[in-house]
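hey can u check if this looks right to u? its 345 residues, i copy pasted from the old doc so theres a chance i mangled smth
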Amino acid sequence: MIPPLVSVLDEIVAALSVFLVSFFCTLFFTDKWIKSTKKMKLLGKDLNKYKKPLVSESGGIAVALAICFSLLIYISLKTFYWDSPTHLVEAFAVSATVLLAGFLGFTDDILGWKKGLTQLQKFLLAFPIALPLMVMNAGRSVMDIPIFGRVDLGLIYPLLLVPVGVVGAANGFNMLGGYNGIEAGMGFIIFTTFGVTGLIVERYWISLIAFIVSASLLAFLRFNWYPAKVFPGNSFTYSIGSLIAAVAILGDMEKLAVWLFSLYFIEGLLYFRARVIDKAGDVQAFGNPNRDDSLEMPYEKVYDTTHFAIWVLKKVKKRVYERDVVCFLLFVQFMLALFGVLLLV
């Protein structure tokens, strides 16, 4: 039965209202957060600029709160307006995931800001983020495995693969960063891809959740784009990384998520090259800024995808700026997203 046109339009208007709530809540919370961090002196140096200006830290906590609030609005619409009880548990699980991720990421930000955390501590800190998805047995345990075909993994999927996926995404999304707008820009492209894919495969509820996150990230870019007024911090990367895993698992988009993480896998390989093969120590993604804020390669070799972007752009233009590096990597991510939708959906 085809739903009445008026009913469809009502649902579209209600969905757009949630997107607007997500967008404007992020604008409001981020603006308030920036003012608060200045009073608290929770500031960090912008190392890709010659004068190293101080910028507000850990703006991701505002994004996490805005997304959670918007998800609750979505749940209330499902309950009282659409009168549809479907996927409410999943929506609550996503809300709990983003709250846990935001809180643990903010804890990491504060402790790391004071004394620093080891990589093992950061890895273990992310495990509780997976609990909401684990306890509700999220996703489908039947998977297509090469050679073996379709295999039902049973409890191995929620108790092992789900936490590995969430922890891996939360920590992995943190690897490619340090440049104004790159984390929020990458997240925006990834979640918009999830949203479009959800529409194509008719998983409209997962598409709506993905677009809620996209709207929030677009608003955050208002403050995080060059020159940034706020840094995202681990409260952002933990939240968005874990949400990528959550949406992929709940929307049965794991293959697409792995494809969209291609740049992060390359980042991991470059990190391995620097630390293990060349024993270069704890290399940094930041470039060496000149007086005009143009960037130079920080090392002779490429140890980061941002270094690769600088190296490539230096071949075609004399001076490379932070915005050039970010736009280059966002373009690569956009092309990955486009091919991912065309080939995997």
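Residues 19 and 212 are 5 Å apart (CA to CA).
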